[in-house]
Amino acid sequence: xxxxxxxxxxxxxxxxxxxxxxxxxxxxxxxxxxxxxxxxxxxxxxxxxxxxxxxxxxxxxxxxxxxxxxxxxxxxxxxxxxxxxxxxxxxxxxxxxxxxxxxxxxxxxxxxxxxxxxxxxxxxxxxxxxxxxxxxxxxxxxxxxxxxxxxxxxxxxxxxxxxxxxxxxxxxxxxxxxxxxxxxxxxxxxxxxxxxxxxxxxxxxxxxxxxxxxxxxxxxxxxxxxxxxxxxxxxxxxxxxxxxxxxxxxxxxxxxxxxxxxxxxxxxxxxxxxxxxxxxxxxxxxxxxxxxxxxxxxxxxxxxxxxxxxxxxxxxxxxxxxxxxxxxxxxxxxxx
Length: 336
Description:
By secondary structure, this protein is an alpha+beta fold. The protein has 2 domains: 3-219, 3-Layer(aba) Sandwich (Trna Endonuclease, Chain: A, domain 1), CATH 3.40.1350.10; 222-335, no CATH class.
């Protein structure tokens, strides 16, 4: 295993912690007959073949009349080098498209069922520390592969710094399946599993321990939301959102000099990045004010946010000031 792969694996386990905080359940081998452990990690049965899925979670709060949702995800921790800008390329998206298509075409049943049902609705998301190439973004949006990045998010800077230091000299010789198992055991119960972690990572075990502490800090204010019920975003609040009396809030929204979106909700600053493909779409309609106004009205007018608020799992709706869209487009043009 190469160092970038190892860093991506660790980042995936970090993302799983944040998803768990938002109410997702991590799926493991043996969950049902469609999931097993393969040579390199978790595998899920498709229509034509078993597919490696780096990490898989379920949302057990699916709306009525919909199949339960399973989210497959992978994370990329590719740091910029003199030969690369660290962005995820189109080949990763192409692989995800093929996997999710085959998974959604697999109709199967448990033994006690007398007829076959399409049991799950599989969706796929790719997380990246340094964003995605333009052609990767266009291909992903066309095939409904969801992209989440932390390129400009300053609250993720400590995680980036620690991952950059992680070389994994010892761990790279161990199978991905075993690395993931030991990482997950450590993240779930650090005190009982510190010795196994030290055997696997050697002197770098302290980096993994610091990553866990940083993740725990972020997770207190970590939420996942949907932009107008269509595109997922990862929102991090500073400080964590405490008790809210209402289910709907009209909020102020602005952008910092790096293009990160900041929402002001009472005493909290909520940070997130829009997928760059959205920025590109907005640029294409910049000259057409009528289309921009229509886009604002129909597509980017609210965010539904879910997570732990005041020790209770809740979903709230944030109504956005539509003027932020013009500011966003201007900021993107300035950044470039």
